[in-house]
Amino acid sequence: MKRLLLLxxxxxxxxxxxxxxxxxxxxxxxxVTTVFPAYDFARAAAGELADVxxxxxxxxxxxxxxxxxxxxxAVRDCDLFIYLGGESDAWVExxxxxxxxxxxxxxxxxxxxxxxxxxxxxxxxEIGHNHEEEHHDxxxxxxxxxxxxxxxxxxxxxxxxxxxxxxxAELDADHAETYRTCASDYAEKLKALDGEFAAFFGTExxxxxxxxxxxxxxxxxxxxxxxxxxxxGCGTQTEPSAATIAFLTEKVRxxxxxxxxxxxxxxxxxxxxxxxxxxxxxAMFHTCHNVSPQELEDGATYLSLMKGxxxxxxxxxx
Length: 318
Description:
Layout: H1 2-17, E1 29-33, H2 36-46, E2 50-54, H3 69-77, E3 80-83, H4 90-98, E4 104-107, E5 116-119, E6 142-146, H5 154-171, H6 176-203, E7 208-214, H7 217-222, E8 227-232, H8 242-254, E9 259-263, H9 269-278, E10 281-285, H10 293-297, H11 302-316
Parallel strand pairs: 1-2, 1-3, 3-4, 7-8, 7-9, 9-10
Antiparallel strand pairs: 5-6
Helix pairs in contact: 1-3, 1-4, 2-5, 2-6, 5-6, 6-11, 8-9
């Protein structure tokens, strides 16, 4: 993807040169974000003082996203560009190295301590899977690179929101305290939610089994969860081996785990197969990486989606 973008970028830039970025008439800061968590944290911190744009359309797969000329203009011309900074939006670094952004950039992975992605027992390692960070051989209990899904722990989401608020305060000193207050208010709600998750998992210790990818390393680490999954967080495979299916099925059956989880936008065929064989149910755990057009239209937030996860946990794991 990166090599293809390098080849296409001159063409995109030439096309973009023939366009004119819309000039905002609001007088507010212009913030552009790549993924939904960044978008949500930015609009929470900005309140009514900035215009926040979600660059990737709802439901778009960030790993394979191909930026348009309009996207390049938006990144170049905004006051603050917020992106993940991991493998799933590696295309961003290619764009930034080829243009001269007029504003500031914030990478979410720079806002919190990073953890290493790991391949746990039974997990299907992806053939040819690679990170730009230093990586190690796959295997049981092995790490495979730095995990980019930093927002999945509510405490991290709070820290990122505060970092966004501080960036906005520096960009617009006249409204600095408003940005900091808005960011702090949302961060406090996220910290309260973190406390609710901690209280729940303080009494519920059954492992979580995902018949899907597992981009929830930070969530699991925050609450010291035991977990099993078909694929690692950045895995793109959809067909696990028979051995992986058998291992997860036996784990669910033997430990009487009440639910097999899948994530948003999954066809959940693997989870369904495991649950059917083990005689249990399936449920979705929303990682908040992406939302549907309907969810966005209905006003979904990171906070509301994660509260929904907590309610689902209470329903199936108590």
